[in-house]
Amino acid sequence: MRAYLLIAAMWIRSTMAYRASFVMTAVASCVVTGLDFVAILLMFSRVDALGGWSLPEIAFLYGLSGLAFGLADLAIGSVERLGRRVRDGTLDTLLVRPAPVLAQLAADRFALRRVGRLAQGALVLGWALAAVEADWTPGRLLLVPVMVVSGAAIFCAVFVAGAAFQFVAQDAAEVSNAFTYGGTTLLQYPPALFAQELVRGVTFVLPLAFVNWLPASYVLGRPYPLDLPVWTAFASPAVAGVCCALAGLAWGAGLRSYRSTGS
C-alpha cells in the first residue's frame, strides 16, 4: 500500500499542476457516463416500469453499480494496460524496482479524472435513496455501504484477473473490458430482463450479481434472482474475499509465467 500511495500521489501532483484541465476532464467524464442514465430516463418517458422495476429502483441498481465500479476503476483500473507492457517489454522496468509489481501497475498514470464517474454514480444513488419506496430498517441502511465496498472489491478482482490473463494473451484488454465495463452496464438493469442462463453465469461463475442484484433485492423487497435463499443477500463481503483471493492466485501464476518479449 505504501508503494501504491506514493506512486499515486506523484501522479495526482502531476495532474493538479494543470487544475483547469483536471476540472474539465472530470466534468466531461461525469457528463459522458451520465448519458447512460439519460438513456434510462428516455425509456421511462415511454414506459412506467422496466422488467417490473420502477425508475427509482433501477436508479438504485444503477447508482450502486456505477459507484462500486467507479471506486475499482479509480483504484486499480490502470492494470488493464498490462497487455501493452507485456507486448513492448516495458513490464521489465517494473520487475527490477523494489516494489510489488501489482502496486506499481495499479498506481501507474493514476487518473484522478475518474472521480467524475464516481460523482455521477453517487448523485444517482443519492437521488434513488431519497425516491425509492423501501422499508429502511437499520440493517437495510447498513447494507448500502457494504454493497458499495464489496462491489468495488469484486470489480477489483475482475480487473486483476483480466490483467493476469494478459500474461498469456499479451494484448487482450478488450476481453477484460467485456467483464468490467460490460459487467457494470449489465448490473444497471434488473435481472428480470435477461435470460436465466446469463443470470446463472453472473451469479455462480463470475459473481457480479453479488455487487447489487442480490443485496438490492433484499433492500427493495424484490424476489431474488433464481429463487436463491435470503442469506445470499448478505454474502457479498465473503464473495468479494474469495474473488480477491482467486484473483491474487491468478496474478501470481501469470507473473511467474512471464518471460519478457525476447527482443
Automatic annotation (TrEMBL):
Membrane-spanning residues: 21-44, 59-79, 118-136, 142-165, 198-216, 228-251
Keyword DNA-binding found: no
Keywords: Membrane, Transmembrane, Transmembrane helix
PROSITE patterns: PROKAR_LIPOPROTEIN
Origin: domain of life: Bacteria
Entries under InterPro entries matching the protein: ABC-2_transporter-like (IPR010390)
Protein name: Transporter
Species the sequence originates in: Streptomyces cyaneogriseus subsp. noncyanogenus
